[in-house]
Amino acid sequence: MAIHEECGVFGVISTKRSNVAGITYYGLYALQHRGQESCGIVVNDDGMFSSYKDLGLVSDVFSQETLAQLPEGNMAVGHVRYGTTGGTTRNNCQPIEVNHQKGKMALAHNGNLSNALELRDKLELSGAIFHTTSDTETIAYMITKERLTASSIEEAVCRAMDSLEGAYSLVLMSSAKMIAARDPYGFRPLCFGRLHQGGYVIASESCALSAVGAEFIRDVEPGEVLVFGENNIESYAEHCGKQERKTCIFEHIYFARPDSVIDGISVHEARMRAGKLLAETYPADADIVIGVPDSGLDAALGFSRASGIPYGIGLIKNKYIGRTFISPGQEERVDRVRIKLSPVESVIEGKRVVLVDDSIVRGTTSKRIVKLLREAGAKEIHMRISAPPFLHPCYYGTDIDSEENLIACHHSMDEIAELIGVDTLGYLPVEKLDRLVESKHYCAACFNGEYPTQIPVDLRKDRFERKLSERV
Description:
Blueprint: E1 7-18, H1 20-30, E2 38-45, E3 48-55, H2 58-61, H3 64-69, E4 73-81, E5 96-100, E6 103-110, H4 116-125, H5 135-147, H6 153-161, E7 169-174, E8 178-182, E9 191-195, E10 199-203, H7 206-211, E11 214-219, E12 225-228, E13 233-236, E14 247-248, H8 249-255, E15 261-262, E16 265-266, H9 267-281, E17 288-291, H10 297-307, E18 315-317, H11 330-340, E19 341-343, H12 345-348, E20 352-357, H13 364-375, E21 380-385, H14 413-420, E22 424-427, H15 433-437, E23 442-443, H16 445-448, H17 465-471
Parallel strand pairs: 14-23, 17-20, 20-21, 21-22
Antiparallel strand pairs: 1-4, 1-10, 2-3, 2-4, 5-6, 6-7, 7-8, 8-12, 9-10, 9-11, 12-13, 15-16, 18-19
């Protein structure tokens, strides 16, 4: 727990003028788990853009009255955000809108560029003026720059991809076209489907397609650019196959909703396999297996089935509070754990408990959960983690910022067990990750340090702090 996520993107193109804002609202609602800081929708009504963006959850930002102010149209793009770069300000809300010599563009982005600062420096030295501190504006500038000489917006996107490094799943809307693009590694998920009433939907996860009644067609391939018309799709594959597929393994362990399917792999089944592997690798003599809601539940069920130890609901989640990692300060984060999770004493009291969670980052959240179970009368607590230990920072959209803050970088497994107060501790072995997704084509750099791209030169948490200090 206590891991920051990146974002969720959504786009819809309809065969006729309709309530595309409403469709986007429900799509973003299904993707709310991917970002809870801010959200936004841009509607295209025959080339006229209307938008609304603000800080907060989808249900808070878009009231019935707010949605009613957005016009009907034939296209819309939407975004939910957790900011891994830049601050939590309204300026950083997406989708980003750009007016340029060749027309208009609205862009929603999931991921992080590993060469963002390098590109931003070059753009600023050429006269570009930035209004946000997000990677997305850098991508928008690169596409706009190419559009000035390209014959089409899709050609501009393809050209810009030659300069972009790192993770980016994009949904882009011009005055006349809807475009989806995924980086050549395929770090972050992106898929699309067909609306029953006509038209197409693009989303970070397949669960958002189901939420709006769209039929899943397929995932966007790594490196692919898709141009959506009302009744047809054009694929540009010049960047496909240039790199080995490296989908983020933590999408399956933690980020994605369990009912999503990413690159043909069921998230629910992957988590069940993680639990099974934990039971095989670190068995425990216990009375009950419980999971930490939500992403620990499927792994706990897998552990239970493989071990034969009964599965139980030992922690109840308050559904009206967001994930603990949204809190920017440690003190507030601990307070949120207290009100977010409640132990079921009748299930826990006097029992030897296997507690399954998705990760341990700093250890503070895990320690608090263990304390809750001790107070509820747990006799023993055997913690099992459905991911390997975090040992390295991530540069592709997961806010694992530095080894300094990772507990596994400074303590052995036995020491961590003592620090968080459990009787035993076991992590999923890094060498078994390929069994989790039945593939070797994934990125696990935060666990094994094997980065697919060059590591950024500037490694500071706030990558834009340098910009301010240099100008003082």
